[in-house]
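Review form for a predicted model. The reviewer records the input and the model, then writes brief findings.
Reviewer: anonymous (R2)
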Amino acid sequence: MQHKKLEKLFASFEKQRIAVIGDVMLDRYIFGDVSRISPEAPVPVIDVSEYGVRLGGAANVAMNIHSVGGDALLFGVIGKDDDGAKLVAEMTAQRFSPDFLVTDSMRPTTSKTRVIAQNHHIVRIDSETRKPISAETERHLFDRLRHHITELDAIIFEDYNKGVLTKSLIKRVIALARKHDVPVTVDPKRDNFFEYQHCTVFKPNLKEISDAFGQKFSNTDEDATRACELLHKKIKSKYVVLTRSERGATVYNGKAHHIPSVALEVADVSGAGDTVIAILTMGLAAGLDILDAAQIANFAAGIVCGEVGAVAVDKQRLFEFCAEHDSLAARR
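Model under review:
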């Protein structure tokens, strides 16, 4: 892509208004060093050097949109608790609005605490419920989204099977989006896998698609193509984007296109899927075709895999990475 076209594309990101609906999370991090084993049990002792909080799950998707200049509207559910307050504070600190979140005093805010020593993930501690949200909470969430539907350039479903995306909410949101001609992209999990009928883009990974169909798909181009064909027929999405770890991704638009991985030194794959769906959606909303949008999303995933923990992609670094590789121009 010519430099001026690339500049125009990245400038257009600031015009995009994207709704993210799904399971928001607070990610807590404890960083430290391991120098000895506990005398009490055969476990490492962590000498803590730093504590941190970041936005996770659907909130990390929204953060990726925000970080490249888009306007992210985050629709999710938090509890009336300390973790919920911290999540709202972190969103405010990052300068995007928590106003579209619904607070449910009967549910805890989903949080994940990761202990990391010498860049190695030692343990993760989860605090959550997987029960479906109440009918009242679902109604509040849908009404807030419906109120803003005419302002949106796309909607992202970010599903972690924590109970926010119920089957009825998924169907209602997709019907609303189709009525207003708003593209819908999906980052799925197993429980609701086949519920996203007639979405625009469906983006599973290889394990998720294998689990859903109850058969093992190997990480070959042939199996990836077969999996995409089956899924495309099953859910009737316009496109399928199958992420394949070190093998990159396969994009299916009636024909399979295989995009190689461009990962830098891999430190942590946490949040890479969040980055892919965010940047893919931004690219489509900005007018890119599915192949170019998937390629830029692939670049973004390669960048964030070099970081420890879930982080949003840096806009300037992504721009430089796209300009350096210039692989979009080669296809045009």
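Findings: The two ends are 8 Å apart (CA to CA).
Further findings: Confidence is low (pLDDT under 50) at residues 327-332.
Recommendation: see findings above.
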